[in-house]
Amino acid sequence: MQLNSSIKQKTISLGWTGASGAPYGLRLLECLLQDGYRVYLMVSSAARVVLATEHGLQLSANSDKAKAQLDQLFNGHQGELIVLGKEQWFSPPASGSAAPKQMVICPCSTGTLAAVATGMSNNLLERAADVVLKERGQLILVPRETPFNAIHLEHMLNLTRNGAVIMPAAPGFYHHPQNVQDLVDFMVARILDHLGIDHSLTSRWGYDNPKDSDLDH
Q: What is the pTM (predicted TM-score) of this model?
């Protein structure tokens, strides 16, 4: 069965889990939708708690209601948002024959990190990550924890050796951030860079203007 190549090119899986850093996940989703991506979004129960705590967003556990909430939040986007439940095993991210070749887990809890590193696949989010790895796709995990213990570091090393990219939520300061949103945008910009998505969220090293920095990118 041939999948439409244009759909595959503009499709991505996104996972939100229970680590601190909900603003990173929200901003990344916003950017992906603005760029016209079809986004398969998987949200853990703990992630909904963090969203409520850090952003004041009471995201529904019902997939259809959650989609409506996020569509309203990002009104007017060009992409397509599909919110999936944790046991929707017949959805595209669950199978190598249909799953997107790119996936980001942002933020990524150390529990999810461990599950993906050991191939647990106890829910759709974990299975989706496992599929991307086995299909030799691009998996980016954005853990937000400090300090890391040896268990965390061993899981990160295992995932890196198996092709994943570990990108801790550690924003830089050389762009002279003026507020929290600037720090969020820095991390999201680095994620978009690795995904190959053009953006002007923040300036690059050696440039003063984000638009100028895109000229050579």
A: 0.91
